[in-house]
């Protein structure tokens, strides 16, 4: 207990501001996080820049590591906070739309549902 009182306090950037009602700062390339050189998977699509792992991306049950550059992470954080603060939720499910912008015809598979095709080549 006594050792805890004498230990230096760690300050996480943005947490104090968040506690006062502000928003935490997004990460930046000089913040001590593990930034690497690579591709930005977000808005800019830069081919080789400093990027930070932001989580896994999942498609059809497979996952890949997803990275973003500083400007795109800032934009993503702004969108996420805007959605959280406005309780931004869809009013209902999106209507099914076929290729070409027309309503999908029931009974036909969607454009991502090919029949008779698989990775195994069968």
Question: What does it look like?
Answer:
With 122 residues, this protein is α+β, with helices and mostly antiparallel strands. It has a domain of 54 residues. It is built from three helices and three strands, in the order H-H-E-E-E-H. It has a three-stranded antiparallel beta sheet. The longest helix is centred in the middle third of the chain and has 16 residues. The radius of gyration is 22 Å and the shape is flat. The C terminus is likely disordered.
Layout of SSEs?
Elements: H1 2-6, H2 15-19, E1 36-38, E2 49-59, E3 62-69, H3 70-85
Antiparallel strand pairs: 1-2, 2-3
Biased composition (Low complexity): 92-104
Region (Disordered): 92-122
Short description:
The protein is α+β, with helices and mostly antiparallel strands. The chain contains three helices and three strands.
Question: Which features does this protein show?
Answer:
flat
Radius of gyration, rounded?
22 Å
Class per helix and strand makeup:
alpha+beta
Numbering strands along the chain, what is their spatial order in the largest sheet?
Answer: 1-2-3
**For the terminal residues, how far apart are their CA atoms?**
65 Å
Strand count, sense and barrel status of the largest sheet are: 3 strands, antiparallel
Helices and strands, in order, run as: HHEEEH
Count of helical regions: 3
* Beta-strand segment tally: 3
Low-confidence stretches: 113-122
**Residue share in helix:** 10-25%
Quote the average pLDDT.
Answer: 74
- As a percent range, the share of strand residues is 15-25%
Shape: flat
Region (Disordered): 92-122
Biased composition (Low complexity): 92-104
């Amino acid at each position: 207990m006594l050792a805890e009182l004498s230990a230096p306090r760690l300050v996480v950037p943005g947490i104090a501001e968040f506690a006062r009602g502000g928003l935490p700062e997004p990460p930046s390339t000089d913040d001590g996080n593990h930034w690497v050189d690579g591709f930005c998977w977000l808005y800019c699509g830069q081919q080789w820049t400093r990027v930070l792992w932001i989580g896994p991306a999942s498609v059809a049950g497979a996952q890949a590591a997803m990275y973003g550059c500083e400007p795109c992470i800032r934009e993503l954080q702004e969108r996420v906070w805007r959605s959280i603060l406005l309780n931004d939720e869809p009013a209902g499910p999106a209507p099914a739309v076929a290729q070409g912008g027309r309503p999908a015809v029931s009974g036909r598979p969607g454009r991502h549902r090919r029949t008779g095709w698989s990775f195994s080549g069968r």
